[in-house]
Specification:
Helices cover 68% and strands 0% of the residues. It is mostly helical and 142 residues long.
Length: 142
């Protein structure tokens, strides 16, 4: 995937959307989505696993997504934002969606359509990154 991102020559929003929606929908639909619940609950008891996960999953994934956001900022497609915060805004709700699936949703009638949530969430954040999405000035009440 890193090679695809590096070779990409178009706008960053479609790349970011395609990459994140495709990957997270695949993860959410698989049994692997349960690993997030285990990690959240047990990572402090297994620091070696935490170190491995950070080094091999979090850091490369964050670098890949952050690189896309940074390229979008550099091209003027995205507004200037803190890249690390933007990555967290894109990824952490997905992690919680997986935790919810294997936690509360397993014993509740309150279900979330994960596939739809993923697409909507990524769309909302990517739209918020767009330079044209800047909030217009507020009018004063007189």
């Amino acid at each position: 995937t890193a090679m695809q991102v590096e070779a990409w020559r178009g706008a960053m929003a479609p790349l970011l959307t395609e990459l994140l929606v495709g990957w997270w929908q695949q993860v959410y639909a698989s049994p692997a989505s349960g690993t997030f619940k285990i990690l959240v609950a047990e990572v402090r008891n297994f620091p070696e696993i935490a170190e491995f996960y950070v080094r091999n999953v979090i850091e490369p994934g964050s670098a890949l997504i952050g690189g896309i956001v940074q390229r979008g900022i550099a091209s003027g497609e995205f507004r200037a934002v803190d890249v690390e915060s933007a990555v967290h805004s894109l990824v952490l709700p997905m992690v919680m969606l997986c935790v919810h699936k294997h936690g509360l949703a397993a014993c509740s009638t309150h279900q979330i359509d994960g596939q739809r949530f993923i697409a909507e969430h990524v769309g909302l954040v990517v739209q918020g990154l767009r330079a044209a999405a800047a909030t217009p000035p507020r009018r004063s009440r007189t």
